[in-house]
Amino acid sequence: MSEVVEIRSCHALEEFHACVKLQREIWGEADLEVEPATLFVVAAHTGGQVIGAYVGDVLVGFVLAVAGVRERTPYLHSHMAGVRVGYRDQGLGRKLKLFQRDEALQRGIGLIEWTFDPLEVRNAHFNFNRLGAISRKYLPNLYGVTTSPLHRGLRTDRLLAEWRLEDPGVVAKVASASGAATTHSPEREGVALKDVDSRLISVPASVPYGVGGDISAATALQGRLRAEFIKTFEDGFVAVATDESPAYVLTRADRVRP
């Protein structure tokens, strides 16, 4: 990326409106599920995060997270992230997530969660292999069937990503991203791939959405993944990586920190 990108927290109303405008640019004017500026305001004023990536005064990416509490422990739920066309596949998404991690740790928050579509293996690779997140929960039709073209009329099944910010595996990946030396061996994937107690859930590299509105193949694939994930999680496994086949790699939960 030849341009200088500044990543910073957003606080002003015009910055929140810029996030809404960028949503429409990324996902299309026809998307009725765009989050309004008021949600960004609430997030910024109640312990959440609105983080922007800027080239000069132009917003080219953002992350929106809301504050949560579970069992008296605060955490962040990262609800939305987007990067403008022309700035993707250049590491900007990872820089946004690492800034998000640093900001959370500065406030004593050690966990960030978010949901993602299990059909999108590229997102899974980023979440698991690049950031060090894990998943132990499958949430069927979490948001219902929406009007968003992004969801293509499918049920909104989601995996819940857990990003434990001070986990040794996460720390190693962060050090690798920054180019810092580390003596820790990021063994999570190695254990998962070699351990006889691991399991694989295969997924195609691209989703068969079909043409002309026919989503029957994608619906069948989603149903298979739903059944396999729910059963494998019930058997005590946790998703920790993806491999090149491509497939999700799961290892026993007792091999992963709670």
Helix content: 25-40%
- Radius of gyration (CA) equals 18 Å
Side-by-side strand order of the widest sheet:
1-2-3-4-5-7-6
The largest β sheet comes out as: 7 strands, mixed
Judged by helices, strands and strand pairing, the structural class is: alpha+beta
Q: Give me the strand/helix succession.
A: EHHEEEHEHEEHHEHEE
Give me the secondary-structure topology.
Blueprint: E1 6-9, H1 13-27, H2 37-45, E2 49-55, E3 58-70, E4 73-83, H3 92-106, E5 111-116, H4 121-130, E6 134-139, E7 158-164, H5 168-178, H6 188-194, E8 199-202, H7 216-234, E9 237-243, E10 247-252
Parallel strand pairs: 4-5
Antiparallel strand pairs: 1-2, 2-3, 3-4, 5-7, 6-7, 8-10, 9-10
Provide a descriptive summary of the structure in words.
This protein is α+β, with helices and mostly antiparallel strands. It is built from seven helices and ten strands. The protein has helices at 13-27, 37-45, 92-106, 121-130, 168-178, 188-194, 216-234; strands at residues 6-9, 49-55, 58-70, 73-83, 111-116, 134-139, 158-164, 199-202, 237-243, 247-252. The strands form two sheets. It has a seven-stranded mixed beta sheet with strand order 1-2-3-4-5-7-6. It has a three-stranded antiparallel beta sheet with strand order 8-10-9, sandwiched between helices. Helix 1 crosses helix 2 (37-45). The N and C termini lie far apart (37 Å).
